[in-house]
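agent: user wants the structure for Gnk2-homologous domain-containing protein from Solanum commersonii. delegating to structure tool.
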Amino acid sequence: MGLPTKPFCIFSLFLVIFTIFKLTPQAKSDSDYTKLIYKGCAKQDLSDPSGVYSQALSSLFGTLVSQSSKSKFYKTSTGSGQSTISGLFQCRGDLSNVDCYKCVSGLPILIDKLCGSKPVAARIQLYGCYMLYEVAGFPQISGMEMLFKTCSGKNAPESVSKILSGSGFEERRDTAFSTLENGMASSNGFYTTSYQSVYTMGQCEGDVGSADCADCVKNAVQKAQVECGSSVSGQIFLHKCFIGYSNSPNGVPRTSSSSSDWSPSSSSGQNVGKTVAIILGGVAGVGFILICVLFARNLMKKHDGVRLVYYDRQRFPESNSNTDSNSSETPKTNSKVYLIFNSSLHMFYPLNSER
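agent: tool returned. relaying tokens verbatim.
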């Protein structure tokens, strides 16, 4: 009787798993570190009728890319006098040398593609690395100046925001920030930590001293608290350091953009979509269990009270009016008879065949 339920339940289970799989955001691949975060291109282009700057820039890019297979930070300059161009690259502290090279090797192409004609200065930030260059005499900016930010979750509906953040999220985030600040003071410029499901990460530029690094990260934390408010994830990029926080084990939100005026609302959809997928998956799972229970109960009602019994002809011979009571005839060997009893009708029904 149980066999008809198996194909139905297996199909229902397959349908639920397929639905959850399609709705749940898939794990990101290792190539995410090459996703674009932002670009910064100077408005002024290089005046290079003799091609001196182009040659110096090409030489700079070649040196930076070759060094990325050996180091996670490198700073150098090419040319001389007014034609000097300085530049650097830095990879995220948790990347291997191989991944660092893969990340950095594509940056010169991106600079040319995103900035168009050669500007006097440019900076391209990917999720796993960044590169910048500037010609001699380009105006310098403070290491604490904010270049870019992302804050997600601001535009989520109130009910979804509560699910994402949970109670006391800002307090937990601030505690994680405090741990990050203390860790950066004693680290080599890169540090990750977490506190009650709030994950943070910070990194300073490779040539920044420990004290200045700690100050830069502290400044970035303060900007995150003000700029991102109650957002469940965000990134703050200062000139000499950056921090990120998130309510997921990924540490920081993985976002991409092709422009520095990217809107923070575009990254909120990922967290909202994940929450909706979890909710729908839970509802689908409960529905699957309920359907199987109801189906099983329906089958049991159909066969309620049906019992399989038998009696032994040999031990309890049937009375036969046509047979002499004094007869010594030996009962049949195959004497077991199976009956079905239906309690609702209070009647026995013999099976068609005997064992």
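agent: one observation worth passing along. The two ends are 20 Å apart (CA to CA).
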